[in-house]
Amino acid sequence: MSNLPKIAWIGLGIMGSPMSENLIKAGYQVTGFTLEQDKLDRLAAAGGTAAASIAEAVKDADVVITMVPASPQVEAISYGPDGILENARSGALLIDMSSITPQTSVDLAKAAKDKGIRVLDAPVSGGEAGAIEAVLSIMVGGEQADFDAAKPILEALGKTIVLCGPHGSGQTVKAANQLIVAVNIQACAEAVVFLEKSGVDLTAALDVLNGGLAGSTVLTRKKDNFLNRDFKPGFRIDLHHKDMGIVTDAARNVGAALPVGAVVAQLVAALRAQGDGGLDHSALLRAVERLSGAQV
């Protein structure tokens, strides 16, 4: 029997499934719960254990990890008689890796403390590819001792793992990350349309741009999406729309102006309103094409 902590994993979506599988590969015993049976079947096929409820998943866990879309889902799985806080054992560590509002994380940590449960907010960046390759950037908020306890687990999921401050700090840094990513994708999308309309070899242009100061992880990861118009979701527009709402609201609360971010937030919202919310966020290219007169 392994002496590694037993892990409960709640939320097996685009990110959660490969992340939980990486923990199984690292030797952890993972019991998972999600709403989709096919995702539970995938976990079981990878060597994990499928649970029939949150309560069943978390009851014997040393560590509970959650990866769900937004604050309402985090609250739904955490609170109430069937939720994590009522069913996890005292002394367990709850690591929420969802991208939610900083205040939701602060409130969760306070509520969990009353139950003897420790909490870290630990949102990630790197998308589906980063999750599969276990090279995510993980931004953590919480206590140093809890971070130290969680770090071996997080090292099976990511490459850059940093404690950013007290509860909610990980979410604040993730909000800044999503701001940078959205603005970067928008700039790349505009460059792609400009280059194509100018008759330039797009593959060659993106290669040379990525070798200079204009290069970025975004361009490296999304170049093929742009070239092939392949917008299979790695990170959906719907979720980036949610994240842009988080960062613009948080910035307003602290008095920070986000003039470019506000424009890109509206462009993301417009793309979603046009029915593209289920596409990858590289589909911001479609919005630029429409603005430039293309029928998309």
From TrEMBL:
It is an enzyme of class 1 (oxidoreductase). Residues 6-165 form the 6-phosphogluconate dehydrogenase NADP-binding domain. The active site is at K174. Residues 168-287 form the 3-hydroxyisobutyrate dehydrogenase-like NAD-binding domain. Keywords: NAD, Oxidoreductase. SUPFAM superfamilies: 6-phosphogluconate dehydrogenase C-terminal domain-like, NAD(P)-binding Rossmann-fold domains. Its EC number is 1.1.1.60. GO terms for molecular function: 2-hydroxy-3-oxopropionate reductase activity; NAD binding; NADP binding. One of its GO terms (biological process) is glyoxylate metabolic process. It comes from the Bacteria. The keyword NAD applies. PANTHER family: 3-HYDROXYISOBUTYRATE DEHYDROGENASE-LIKE 1, MITOCHONDRIAL-RELATED. NCBIfam families: tartro_sem_red. Belongs to the HIBADH-related family. This is 2-hydroxy-3-oxopropionate reductase.
